[in-house]
Amino acid sequence: MHRRIIVPGALGAASLMLAIPASAAAHSPGAPGIGDPYYPAYGNGGYDVSHYDLRLKYRPDTDRLEGTATILARTTEDLSRFNLDFLLDVGEVRVNGAKASFTTSGEHELEITPRSPLRKGTPVTVVVRYSGVPSSEQAYGFTSWHRTPDGGVAANEPEAAWWWFPSNDHPLDKATYDVSVQVPDGTQAISNGTLQSTSSRLGWTRWNWRSDKPQATYLATLAVGRFDLTTGTTESGIPVVNAYSKDLGAHDGAARASVERTGEIADWLVGYFGPYPFNALGGYVPNTDTGYALETQTRPFYSPRQFANGSNVSVVVHELAHQWYGDLVSVRGWKDIWVNEGFARYAQWLWSEREGEGTAQELADYTYASHPADDPFWTVRPGDPGPENQFDIAVYDRGALAVHALRVEVGDEDFFAILKGWPARYAHGNASVADFQRYAEEVSGKPLAALFDTWLFQPSKPDAPAARAASLAQTSDVPARPRSWQRIAATNDVHGH
């Protein structure tokens, strides 16, 4: 309610100030970043999103995307305005049904001012109508939208959402999703979760996908093109949907021979990480010219290049391991990336053991010995690598060495209890490297600060005594290369964005 007070002169101004409720005067803009030191402008402050409903229309021939995003959130402070992360052209914004004013700022900020300030704890419905050509947009000199001969793909880390939907783009704000995409008949739209329905009318087909468990924004994906879809189920009954671009050419067979093993690999990982945490599974291979893969939740993205030298089951193991380590439990901040990558790499080492192509111990020995003390590899600290080294090979390989050092230190019984218990402890939430250390100490009953510091935070190669104590180097010679090494190394650029 607004009261209009007409009082002449200075007395009027004073009376007007007195008439504004203290709570209204306290409203302030939400922060344009969620507080991550690696990416200060990513995410936003002042609210928490619970659900995204995205209703889209996409024209593959022109790369034009039209959309209406309905965002359900709750304020976490008194807000006079708030931001969303977004790049496309916005036509209208409504907040709780009323038109809101909006403007843009920075590289990717959409600033929204609701008609009335929002009190802390208020449920908020934000509707954003937008359109644009994603491939024409860049932020910080790059794009996370991949134009393909028959459409487009949104997949990248740590950011991809800006090119196709407005969001609070940071893993700290996870939400559920409904993604409904209208595309020309004969074209498929692939996203996360379960395919709820498809329907066709007047030359257009609508694909409706649902992710009913919390999902980080960078893990939401969209791929439109001409795909061949295969379906199946895991032994535990999880539905599997895989999709392959119809123009993969020579890569097609190797891609299918790898990704079609998704259900088998997920069932195997259950033995190490606990029950599969979602109700859908799969993977997709669009005809992109990128080189990386990404653990987009329930349906990882694989570039054709991952299969250029034949089948690559190891990369499938890596991305599926992320469904527990990275997706079910997401980073608290981007500096905590080791909790994602070190364990996904270690899953590849465990798969190598299963296949009889080199034990985790042999892979650890070879990795350690392959990098002399003056190798820059050892200057990267996996526990806090900095944004410039967030996806450096050391985060993967030195990160896996840290995981193996933990295994040797606490013994297999406690180690595998930690592997399985960690995803359950922080399920559908966020956690840090420090949280993991505390949890490992809790399970093992051992002080582990020195071990974590040596393997994750010191910018130098652990000395020989420390390495021998962790059984990582028994001689000065480089041990024989495990047979799985080349296949594992072929995934080194999985996040080389």
UniProtKB/TrEMBL annotation:
<feature type="domain" description="Aminopeptidase N-like N-terminal">
    <location>
        <begin position="50"/>
        <end position="219"/>
    </location>
</feature>
<dbReference type="InterPro" id="IPR027268">
    <property type="entry name" value="Peptidase_M4/M1_CTD_sf"/>
</dbReference>
<dbReference type="InterPro" id="IPR001930">
    <property type="entry name" value="Peptidase_M1"/>
</dbReference>
<keyword id="KW-0645">Protease</keyword>
<feature type="signal peptide">
    <location>
        <begin position="1"/>
        <end position="24"/>
    </location>
</feature>
<dbReference type="Pfam" id="PF17900">
    <property type="entry name" value="Peptidase_M1_N"/>
</dbReference>
<feature type="domain" description="Peptidase M1 membrane alanine aminopeptidase">
    <location>
        <begin position="311"/>
        <end position="455"/>
    </location>
</feature>
<keyword id="KW-0482">Metalloprotease</keyword>
<comment type="similarity">
    <text>Belongs to the peptidase M1 family.</text>
</comment>
<dbReference type="InterPro" id="IPR042097">
    <property type="entry name" value="Aminopeptidase_N-like_N_sf"/>
</dbReference>
<protein>
    <recommendedName>
        <fullName>Aminopeptidase N</fullName>
        <ecNumber>3.4.11.2</ecNumber>
    </recommendedName>
</protein>
<dbReference type="InterPro" id="IPR050344">
    <property type="entry name" value="Peptidase_M1_aminopeptidases"/>
</dbReference>
<keyword id="KW-0732">Signal</keyword>
<dbReference type="InterPro" id="IPR014782">
    <property type="entry name" value="Peptidase_M1_dom"/>
</dbReference>
<keyword id="KW-0378">Hydrolase</keyword>
<keyword id="KW-0862">Zinc</keyword>
<dbReference type="Pfam" id="PF01433">
    <property type="entry name" value="Peptidase_M1"/>
</dbReference>
<keyword id="KW-0479">Metal-binding</keyword>
<dbReference type="InterPro" id="IPR045357">
    <property type="entry name" value="Aminopeptidase_N-like_N"/>
</dbReference>
